[in-house]
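REVIEWER CHECKLIST
Item 1: Sequence provided? yes
Item 2: Single chain? yes
Item 3: Sequence as submitted:
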Amino acid sequence: MTIGKFRIHREGYKIIGGVLLALIAMNFAGWLIWQGPTLWHYAGLAASMLLLAFVVLFFRTPARPVEPDPLLIYAPADGKIVVIEETFEKEYFKDNRLQISIFMSPFNMHSNRYPISGTVTYTNYQPGKKFHARSPKSSVLNERSSIVVTSESGTGILVRQVAGAMARRIVTYSKNGEGVKQGDELGFIKFGSRVDIFLPTGTEVDVEMFQQVRASRTILARVI
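Item 4: Structure as written out by the authors:
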């Protein structure tokens, strides 16, 4: 669905429709209760329009074509860098990895993209808690979905979608064994959340703490 210059993500169709119908019903009820246009009615109408605009903008998904480059690792999500550190990745690689985490506020685009081209070699969804997405423990305790993409050269990268306190559903489109292209859509997280990416140690990092990044536009790191 396209509205003006915005393309609306398919994950938002039902939610936007439900919000629109609910707001129409509420404003119609308000009209009946207040018996015609009043200051309260106009205030409610304005608030309804702002809420609908927020929901529509939340589900925006701009086209961001990428020219695949095997030496570049792009940001998988829009947001702010909140972690750059070496850590032990215990779910899949079971060794030390360079972790970069991106916090997505409710105002960021929440469509997630593949940071590299390759083959999906692992997918795993785990239900969990609802700690704030900025919390370090959210990466291992919250609802999450992990995807490993292995490039033609054998470089493996784990991308982990992590639900936050506001997030209610993680959507992952990845399937084991499928070939994927850099910049293609990986999934979607509804409302506040984060994305962790685990890279081989020694990878050259191109971003810094608290930097704002954009999916398929910002280069996170370079393969050495």
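Item 5: Key structural point noted by reviewer: The mean pLDDT is 87.
Item 6: Recommendation: ____
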